[in-house]
Predict the 3D structure of the following.
Amino acid sequence: MVNQNKEYYLGLYEKSMPNTLSWEEKLKVVKEAGFDYLEMSIDETEEKLARLDQSVDEIEKAIEKTGVPIKSICLSGHRKYPLGSHDPKIRERGMEIMEKAICLAARLGVRVIQLAGYDVYYEEGDFQTRDYFKMNLKEAAIMAAKQGVLLGFETMETPFMDTVEKAMAYVKDVDQAYLGVYPDIGNLKNASLLYNVDVNEDIMTGKGHIFATHLKETVPGKYREIPFGTGHTEFVRNIKTLKRLGVRMFVGEFWYVGNDDWKQVIIDANDFLRDKLEQA
């Protein structure tokens, strides 16, 4: 299993590899590339959402056989079924997804679930969507507390929650120990250009409430599929601040895009991120 004496843990985002791989194959890739654990994706596709109702036997056997754990879940399924929707049926489905994801996390020993920082996504937000969002977050935080699973907001690419400071407004409002922030430093860098703020100063607003961090590359105005080392994310500088705040779980977030050399891309990503983490 994972070496408990490590200074930090570096996870690999599931979508960095082909979805056709079995769980055992995915966990073997994690180990062979040098990462410490896998971050599972439960996005808005029906295929991924179906995981919430399926047996976890295959996953548990894969974890046992490979010795590679799943320590976090990226739960972006709320983009389609947001907690703040005007439609009560969508809100109900969103809360069902939330409860099932927390139960799945507890079953697999997952420590933290990353929540998408949206009140709504495919509809216009207003004071009512924000109120619904807060109301359901309070209920979700209690669900999480019962299972001992942390819920952390991802800082997104939309103005609703693109900074740690904005995420912390909801964390403080809900005021529950199991709700915090799981920022994406690539997204924070893009937001810093929009608001003329320093990324590290923004990170500091989450002091005591940051559970883990996505390490992702971005360029101005673009948030996905930017190769590591070709963008403007301030990896070493930001990681230093995060480590000072006690953050020790990091995940390399990048995507498989149909390329034949995807395994080498994952190995190179591990080398790149380990170098930045060690420099920090």
